[in-house]
Amino acid sequence: MLSSMMKNNSHRVDYLNFKAVGMNGSFGIYVRGCLQDGQPYSSEAKRCLFICLDYVRRSMEEEKLVAVYMDIFDLQNANNLAFQEMETDLRKGMFEKVLFADLEEIFKDSVLNDKLFDLAECVEGIEFIDVDGNVFEAKKIPLNQILGV
To answer: What is the CATH classification number for the domain harbouring 135?
Structure first.
């Protein structure tokens, strides 16, 4: 995984627990980071990965971790190829939760922000969480509840 952190505009996806695919409570991790000039690897991505893995070890069921998605980008080109693969897997129903190191950082990227909102509207039961306890999920309210019928 470290070799992927050493190249700009690279991505990596590691599938870990195929038995957890589609299981209630299954989840994936998404991390990203920028490779700064002069850095041997993206310390930002490494820090986010370690924070997420520590959170999983302390607060979640490790055996329900389906995949880890990682994007390394530069400031001019943010391809987010791992994010796109994660989107595809979410739409297939491989897992229902995504853990981020910092949801706020993801929402600051307008492209990823739009994609998260689209996923929340299209994928039933999806939940986005971060290690600080922030949660973003779209609650679908039945029409008769809105109308009071």
So the answer is: 3.40.50.1390
pLDDT digits (tens, 9 = 90+) for 43-76: 899 999 999 999 999 999 999 999 999 999 876 6
CA distances 48 to 8, 58, 110, 130, 140, Å, are 17, 15, 20, 11, 31
Contact 93, 124 (CB under 8 A): no
Number of domains, the chain: 1
Looking up tokens 């929340």 gives 120
Bridge partners, 6 (sequence order): none
Question: 63: domain range?
Answer: 2-147
| Global confidence as pTM | 0.86
